[in-house]
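Before going further, it is useful to explain how the protein records used in this thesis are read. An example of such a record is reproduced below.

***
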Amino acid sequence: MTKVALVDDHQLFRKSLSLLLDSFEGVSVEYDTHNGLAFLKYLMEYDIDVLLLDLEMPIVHGFDVCKQAKLIDPSLKIIILSQLTSKEAVHQVMEMGANGYFTKNTSPEMLENAIQNVMDKDYCFDMALSSVIREALLWNKKRPVFSDSQSVHLTPKEIEIIKLATLEKCSKEIADVLNISNRTVEKHRNHIMEKTQSKNFIGVVLYALKNKIIELEQI
């Protein structure tokens, strides 16, 4: 069972979404609140797999909730669900470790798929935001790359895993393509994240773009 929390300051939307999420197979809403600080306190005591988070909120802004939640539990998957769709906003939460970004117009089917994808593949984005996502990546790409002293060596196998991950293949699918075990893929993924100092695999993709290991057209 995937344990989900929901943080949004619009009560009617939050309660309606909570009922919808509970109707998804294998999903259980464990906590919902309008208060980001209350959620962070909750996260210190209880395990949550996926957080659905609005950005524009009072008390504690969604950007701060995203950042602090990842510090409390780095394994937490965070899906942003917001009407704020600027490339700057998308880029900022991606660097903070968010695993997905969707608008509030997202269909129930797409949201259910997103929850499954962030659990299986580590990241998933609203196709309606594809142009914004690409702009955010391009905007990020224009920033300075790592210096030689900070660069890391990625093996051909690790680069191939990054390329396959950008095609939204899960670890099992990557294992089948490379004819290795699922466990070996997971070890490679963890090692790549350690090497690139990334919070999740979208961070690895950002690193690969910055250092021209992959091209934007491959995303």
Strands lie at 2-7, 27-33, 50-53, 77-81, 100-102, 124-125. Residues 144-149 have pLDDT under 50 and may be disordered. The radius of gyration is 17 Å. Residues 20 and 219 are 31 Å apart (CA to CA).
